[in-house]
Structures are given as structure tokens and as C-alpha cells.
Amino acid sequence: MKYVDEFRDGELAKNIAANIAREADPKRTYRLMEFCGGHTHAISRYGIADLLPANVRMIHGPGCPVCVLPIGRVDQAIRLAREHGVILCTYADTVRVPASDNLSLMRAKAKGADVRMIYSTQDALKVARDNPQREVVFLAIGFETTTPPTAVAIQQAAAEGLKNFSILCDHVLTPAAMHAILAVEGGVALDGFVGPAHVSTVIGSKPYEPFADDYGKPVVIAGFEPLDVMQAILMLVRQVNDGRAEVENEFTRAVTREGNLKAQQLVAEVFELRDMFEWRGLGSVPDSALKLRPKYAAFDAELKFRVDYVEVPDNKACECAAILRGQKRPQECKIFGTVCTPENPVGSCMVSSEGACAAHYSYGRFREVA
Amino acid sequence: MCLAIPARIEELTTPGNAIVNLGGVRKEISLALVDDAAVGEYVIVHVGYALQKLDREEAERTLEMFAEMGQLDELREELNT
Ligand code: SF4
């Protein structure tokens, strides 16, 4: 696919890198957070950090849905599958997130729970249609990109009168998490954000304006291709040099200021804000997640099966929380790469290739020694 | 799981669905979240849904911008030597 290859052109990347090196002021450091796990993945996979001068440092943010899901939320899903005998459907990465009692959804499956990995909410609906005698629960996780597909499924289920389908809603909001990062105690010294790619195709660039206007942090929305990320870094370096804090959009081929209004409308019809939601690493953050509107209460698995959320502390050795807040790097975790590996993750950041630890383990680990 | 790929719409199927080409693999996706997507257009596909149409012209402009920056560099290099 030529269309994609051009966005990965190594020569162009070197040119942008040369510009960054030329324009970055050696007398200062640039601490830039890529909020989104997709960017973390691109930065590790294409070795982007190697192309940057030492004073331009990328800090991984919390923008990976499986990484920010606290243990208690996975426990809830496991309880549904084991104690209530439901068919639990979820996206693939989620099944490997470590939960309480040395379990994960995958281990629960090995012990007999009916856990199924799906690719799309359409698949979950199909499982429900095909198994009318069973209860089917979709563990719905993710940021603003995965929320509209869940909303479509709920409306479809309502229209079809599917009585055996419900969701465990763990959808979370990007701007709320960015606020939480900036409000973190002790603070994370940040000079700017590489703004999410696909989240922004849905919500647009407008919701980031407070970060520029009120917090004085530049935001450059970038696509996931390596050139996009390089270009966004250059744009951030320029903003910092000029003393500007603006929302700029490198990803104009897919992102507008307003975003996808149709998707936003659907989400607003189906969901409302949760007062409080616990994130891994960020703690309880008000208005940072969604729940179903009362109109769709029949599809809310938390109400249907009365599985309450119980807070569970992370594994003591795990530094995921600090990593998700941008305060530590994967290699600073004592068990990184030894006890905790992608095959045997102890913390959530080691699960998906968009998690900081897994990304660093797969692509960046050997650079440190070299 | 946030990784989504640009894909070309190859065929409109049942109302609201389409077959796209995802790097050589043909797959049916839902168009419920985008209006009037037509055959030949590029969309960003995520968990089985088109999230947004990809502006072809803007995409080309982005590529030009990258390319232009490359040329600017050469120019600068010439000036510097
Ligand atoms: S290496 Fe494992 S345990 Fe340590 S912070 Fe990363 S995910 Fe958590």
C-alpha cells in the first residue's frame, strides 16, 4: 500500500529529525508527553526516540485503555463470568490484564468461564443472537474511539429487543485524563502534548483548547505514522521556542476542529457522565468516564447483575501507576523484563503493545545497553 | 487496541456496511458512524467501524509538506556550505 508507505519514508524522517536537532535549543529540555498508546507504539517501533536530540524527551502518557483499567474493573468482569455464568465478550488485549487472585480473564477462561474475544461490537451482538438462552455481557473499554461503536450496539440491541445482551461500561474520556495528569500532585513537568490521533477524529481538536489556553501547554494532534509523530514533535519544539501555547493539528487528513458530529451525537444519546471513576495510576477522577443513560438501564450489566465495583490495590512491585502519570520510565521498575514480561505481565502496562512497558520491552530494551 | 488503519472502501454491502481493503485483507465493516461514504474513499477503521473519512487531498498535502521540508533542508545545507 503506497498510501501508507509514504508516511513511513525513512529519508523524510531523517530530514525532520535534522530540523528538530537544529531548532531544539541545547540550553533547555523539551519534555513532551505522547498521551496516546498508539503514539507510544509508533515511537518505540520505529525508533523515533533515537532520532531525537538528548534534550527532547518523550514521556509516555496514560492513553492505552487496557493500561488504565484498574484491577477492580477486571475483577467485576471475572465475577460476571464465573459467578453469574454469562458469556463475557471483550476486545483481545483485555483478557490478559492481571486481576486479583492471580487471575485474568484468560485464566478464568482456562478454568471454565465462558470468555470470548471479539473484534467488533457487532460480533458481541451476534453472540447474543446466537445464544438466546444465555446472558451475554460485553466488557466495553476504551477511549472516545471505541465508545461510538458501543453506542451503535446498544441502540441496535434496543431496536431488536435483545433481552440477553448488556454491557459492563468502562469507557473513559481523554480530556479528563489530561486534566488529571496536569493536576497530579508533585506535578509532571511537561512542555507539551502530542495529542491523540483517532480519539481526535471523533472529538475534534476543540476539547484540547483549555490545555493551551488555561494551562499554557501546547498540543499538537498527530497521526500514528512515524512521520506524523516526528512532524508533531518539530511543531511542539517550535511552539516552545516561540513561547506559544496553541492547539495545532498535524493530522488534518482525518481531524477537524469539530470532529465526527454523528458519532458524538450517538454517544450523547446513549451515555452520560459518571460522577467518579477510578483509573489505574490517576486515582478517582470526577467526570472522567461514561455510564449508560437511565433509558438504557436494561443493558447495564452492573445494574442487571448487581456486581459492584470494589477497589483493589496494584501489585506492590508494579510501577504502572507512576508510569501512567509520566513520572517514571518502564526500565525504572525493578521487575521490568525479569518477572514482568509480555508473556507473563504483572502490571497492565506490559499487556498491550501500546502500553509503555510492552512497547519498551519489544522494541526499546536493547537500545539502553547499546 | 487503539491502532486503526486507513482502508479503502471497495464495495457497499447491506445497508450501512461496506467491504474495505485493509492492507490486502478484505473485511466487512460498519458505516454507522460516517455519512455518505462512497466506494473509492478512504476511511479510518477501528474495531470494525469506519470512524472518519480520510481526506485524500489533505493526505496528499501532508505528504507534500513532509517532502517540502526535505527540500528546504537541502536548500539550507547548500546555503550553509
Ligand atoms: S514492568 Fe510490569 S510491573 Fe513494572 S511497571 Fe511495567 S507493567 Fe508494571
Number of discrete domains of chain B: 1
User: Helix-strand pattern of chain A, N to C?
Assistant: HHEHEHHEHEHEHEHEHHEHEHEEEEHHH
> How far apart are the first and last residues' alpha carbons of chain A, in Å?
33 Å
CATH architecture of the largest domain in chain A: 3-Layer(aba) Sandwich
Question: What descriptive keywords fit this protein?
Answer:
heterodimer, A: alpha/beta, 2 domains, four-stranded parallel β-sheet, 16 helices, 13 strands, B: SH3 type barrels, five-stranded antiparallel β-sheet, 31% helix, binds iron/sulfur cluster
Describe this structure in words.
Chain A: GO terms for molecular function: 4 iron, 4 sulfur cluster binding; carbon monoxide binding; iron ion binding. Chain A: This is Hydrogenase maturation factor. Chain A: Keywords: Iron, Metal-binding. Chain A: InterPro entries: Hyd_form_HypD (IPR002780), HypD_1 (IPR042243), HypD_2_sf (IPR042244). The complex is a heterodimer of chains A (370) and B (81). Helix content of chain A is 39%, strand content 17%. Chain A has 370 residues and is an alpha/beta fold. Chain A has two domains: 1-312, 3-Layer(aba) Sandwich (Rossmann fold), CATH 3.40.50.11740; 320-359, no CATH class. In chain A, the strands form four sheets. In chain A, strands 2-1-7-8-9 form a five-stranded parallel β-sheet, sandwiched between helices. Chain A has a four-stranded parallel β-sheet with strand order 4-3-5-6, with helices on both faces. Chain A has a two-stranded antiparallel ribbon with strand order 10-13. In chain A, a hairpin with a 3-residue loop joins strand 11 and strand 12. In chain A, helix 2 (10-23) runs parallel beside helix 12 (226-242), helix 3 (37-45) packs parallel to helix 16 (356-369) and helix 8 crosses helix 13. The model of chain A has no long low-confidence stretch (mean pLDDT 91). In chain B, strand 4 and strand 5 (49-54) form a beta hairpin. Chain B has a five-stranded antiparallel β-sheet with strand order 3-2-1-4-5. With 81 residues, chain B is of the alpha+beta class. Chain B is built from one helix and five strands. Chain B is 31% helix and 38% strand. Chain B has one domain (5-80): SH3 type barrels (Roll). Chain B has one helix at residues 56-80, and strands at residues 5-12, 17-22, 25-30, 42-46, 49-54. In chain B, 36% of the residues are buried. The model of chain B has no long low-confidence stretch (mean pLDDT 78). The chains are: A alpha/beta (370), B alpha+beta (81). The interface between A and B is large, with 56 and 37 residues. Bound molecules: iron/sulfur cluster.
